[in-house]
Design goal:
Elements lengths: L1 H50 L1 E3 L5 E3 L2 H6 L2 H33 L4 H14 L5 H11 L4 H5 L12 H25 L3 H9 L4 H30 L2 H6 L7 H9 L10 H31 L1
Antiparallel strand pairs: 1-2
Helix pairs in contact: 1-12, 3-7, 3-9, 3-11, 4-7, 7-9, 9-12, 11-12
Length: 298
C-alpha cells in the first residue's frame, strides 16, 4: 500500500514537474526570439509599412496601394515573371541532376569518392555571385576560352541570356542539391531492398513502388529550396546580363538607386514585399515536406 501511495504521489506530481521544466526553458530561448524580432521582424514590418506609403504630387505621404499595384504591372510584372520562370527551370534541372549524382555517390563503394564529391559540393555550392559571373564570362563569354575553342558563336549560344543564367545558376545549385538530398538517400534502409528482393521485386520495381515514393518529400523539399535560392540570387545576374534579362532582383536594385519616377520612391519596398510573400509561400510548402521526409527517413 505504501508503495502504491508513493507511486500515485509521483504520478500526480510528474505533470507539474514537467510543466515547471518547460517554463524554465523559456528564458534560454528568449534571446533567440529577441534576435528574430530585431533582425527579421523589425525590418520586415518597416518594409511592409513603407510599401503602402504613397507620396502625392505635393510631397505628402499617405497610405495607399499604388506602390503594390505598380509593382505588379507593366515591366515590374515582367521582371517578377522572369524571376519565377528562371527559378522554376533552374530548380527542376538542379533537382534532376543533383539527385542522380547523389544517388551515384550513395551507392558507390568507394569512400574516397564520396568524400571528394561532398567536399567539392560544399565548395561549389558557396561559389556564386560576382566571382562566378566573371568566371563564366572568361570561359563562355563573347571572347571566352570555350567559346573560341568550340566555335559557340556559330550555334547562336549567348551567355548573356536566359539560357546563360540557367547554366550559371546550375553551377552552384546542383552541388547544393547533392548536399541536400544525400542524407535522404542514405536513409533508405538496405532492409527494404532486401525485403523487396525476397518478395521477387526487381530493382526497377523497388524504386517505382518504394524508393521514389519515400524520397518524393525530400526531392520536392530540395526543389523548393532550389527555387528559393535561384529566386533570391542577384549578383550573378547583375554582372552577367545587367538589365537584358528582366528579373525582379535587378529591378529592386535599380529602384533603390533612384531609377524610378517621382512619387515612386517606395516602389522597391513594394517589390521586396512581393518577394517576401513568395518566400513565405515557399517556406509553407517546404516545412511540411521536411516533416514528412523526417518521419520516413528519420
Amino acid at each position: 500500500m505504501a508503495d502504491q501511495a508513493v507511486g500515485t504521489a509521483v504520478a500526480a506530481g510528474a505533470k507539474p514537474a514537467v510543466r515547471r521544466r518547460g517554463r524554465h526553458r523559456w528564458p534560454a530561448v528568449l534571446p533567440y526570439f529577441v534576435f528574430l524580432a530585431l533582425c527579421f521582424g523589425l525590418p520586415a514590418g518597416t518594409m511592409a509599412y513603407n510599401a503602402f506609403m504613397v507620396t502625392d504630387a505635393s510631397g505628402a505621404a499617405h497610405f495607399g496601394t499604388d506602390n503594390v499595384s505598380n509593382s505588379l504591372s507593366g515591366a515590374y510584372a515582367t521582371g517578377l515573371t522572369g524571376s519565377v520562370e528562371l527559378s522554376v527551370v533552374s530548380a527542376l534541372l538542379a533537382t534532376l541532376f543533383g539527385a542522380l549524382i547523389a544517388q551515384a555517390v550513395a551507392t558507390s563503394k568507394r569512400p574516397a569518392l564520396r568524400k571528394a564529391v561532398v567536399a567539392a559540393s560544399g565548395v561549389f555550392a558557396n561559389f556564386s555571385g560576382a566571382p562566378l559571373a566573371f568566371a563564366f564570362i572568361a570561359t563562355l563569354g563573347t571572347t571566352g576560352t570555350l567559346t573560341r575553342l568550340l566555335s559557340l558563336h556559330s550555334t547562336g549560344f549567348s551567355l548573356y541570356s536566359f539560357t546563360g543564367l540557367v547554366l550559371a545558376y546550375l553551377y552552384f545549385m546542383i552541388p547544393l542539391m547533392v548536399v541536400t538530398v544525400l542524407p535522404a538517400l542514405d536513409g533508405l534502409r538496405t532492409q527494404w531492398q532486401e525485403a523487396a528482393a525476397s518478395c521477387g521485386a526487381t530493382r526497377r520495381q523497388f524504386w517505382l513502388h518504394i524508393g521514389i515514393p519515400v524520397l518524393t518529400p525530400s526531392l520536392l523539399g530540395g526543389a523548393v529550396l532550389m527555387f528559393g535560392t535561384a529566386f533570391a540570387s542577384q549578383a550573378t545576374a547583375a554582372v552577367m546580363t545587367g538589365s537584358s534579362v528582366p528579373l525582379i532582383t535587378l529591378q529592386i536594385s535599380n529602384a533603390l538607386n533612384g531609377n524610378v519616377l517621382a512619387g515612386q520612391e517606395n516602389l522597391a519596398l513594394a517589390m521586396s514585399l512581393n518577394m517576401v510573400v513568395i518566400a513565405l509561400l515557399v517556406m509553407a510548402v517546404q516545412i511540411p515536406l521536411q516533416r514528412r521526409s523526417a518521419r520516413w527517413l528519420g
